[in-house]
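INTERNAL AUDIT FORM
Audit reference: QA-55
Scope: verify that the stored structure record matches its stored sequence.
Auditor: D.O.
Record contents follow.
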Amino acid sequence: MVFHLAWGVAGAKAAAERGDAIAVIDALRFTSASVTAVHNGFTVIPAKNEVEARSLSIKHHAAPGKAGICALSPRQFIDAPPLRIVLPSPHGATVCCEVGGAGALLASFLNAQAAAKAIARASDETGRNATIIVSGEIGGDRRANMYRFEADLAKGNDIFCFEDYACAGCVSSYLPGSKSLDLQAAEGVYLENKARLVGCIRECVSGRYLSAKGFDADVDFCARLNPFTCVPRIVKENGDAIIVGD
């Protein structure tokens, strides 16, 4: 079996069609928030946008009011009573919704080692290759979902999300066996920057944006290595993707 790297919704769909084992990464902040939430007993319903979040909240009986539709800060789930919540995101949640029937796993820096073990096990059990999906790159058909700051920075080009690429490399560093050249390259980037990882993530586009919005503590939290062993997985419930514990 071979471990691959792919980008965004298109890469996720292609991996699902091949029957690959899949791990989804959106380090700042969707998969980090989901890992933290599930570790603390939450059930997470991914939503592509706020309109869909409201509909899913009603359909799946999420916690009422503001408790039911949550922002992406992972720190809010620490020492909080476990609830059934909706977590909207135009990046990671969108990918999760697209591969909801593929039994995909969620990875982040927070659970990288455990996620690598889980994706390797899934690949071995199914006899299929595995693909790590980095969901943060924005461009092309997803331009309509971009935040204004991303549109301004892009100036007609795609945005390369360093944090997701490095996170894929981090997961890869714990994987045994054969890896695609793309994944090997991501692993090289991670290893080269591992000693100064937090600073690099603070300085990347998403890190700078979140810090400017007052979420610098979230950036630092999401850059922590392996505090959790939880590896959330995506299941289908009433036709929708639901993120539950392993």
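Auditor finding: record pair retrieved intact. Residues 120 and 176 are 8 Å apart (CA to CA).
Action required: none
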